[in-house]
Amino acid sequence: MKIPNKFITPLDNHAAKKLEFLAKNSKQARVPQRAKAILLSSKKVSINEIAKKCGVGRNAVSAWIDNWEKLGFEGLADKERPGGPPKLNESQKELLFELARETPRDFSSMIGKLYEQTGKLISESTIKRLLKNDGIDWKTME
Q1: Cα angle at 60 between 65 and 73, to 5 degrees?
Q2: pLDDT exceeds 60 at position 1
Q3: Of 28, 35, 53, 125, which alpha carbon lies 20 to 30 A from 97's?
């Protein structure tokens, strides 16, 4: 059974150059990967091969091609995701991690010191989530 393929409509020179630039220089997380996939599709590379090169599934590549066909360059960007803004910025997170190393598992102390230094009041569950997301197991901290 032959696996169906689809390819983007041919690119003009300007679009190809812009995609090449985005594939190498975009600051957005997934845009370079998507730009590379669109360039490969323009060269008639199969969806399976693009998926292997990009480390994603066929469905993702197919969706990228569909988004490109419908939205062009706008289709490369991530869509808005649900949820509120981050509780802490990067420097505040670093402070939290420092406090966690100083007083492991003493969440009230961390909450109080973080509030004193940043004016941000966060919960114990938020601290646990932030530590976990950074690969720190708060249960084994000594």
Answers
A1: 40
A2: no
A3: 28
Asked if residues 82 and 117 have their Cβ atoms less than 8 Å apart, the reply is no
Distance between first and last Cα of the chain: 58
Smallest CA-to-CA distance from 38 within 15, 57, 59 is with: 15
What are the helix (H) ranges across 10-79?
13-25, 31-42, 47-54, 58-71
Q: Domain segments of the chain: what residues?
A: 13-76, 90-132
Place of tokens 């150059």: 17
* Contact indicator for 103, 77 with CB cutoff of 8 Å: no
pTM (two decimals): 0.58
Is residue 50 within 8 Å of 98, Cβ to Cβ? no
* pLDDT tens per residue, range 34-60: 999 999 999 999 999 999 999 999 999
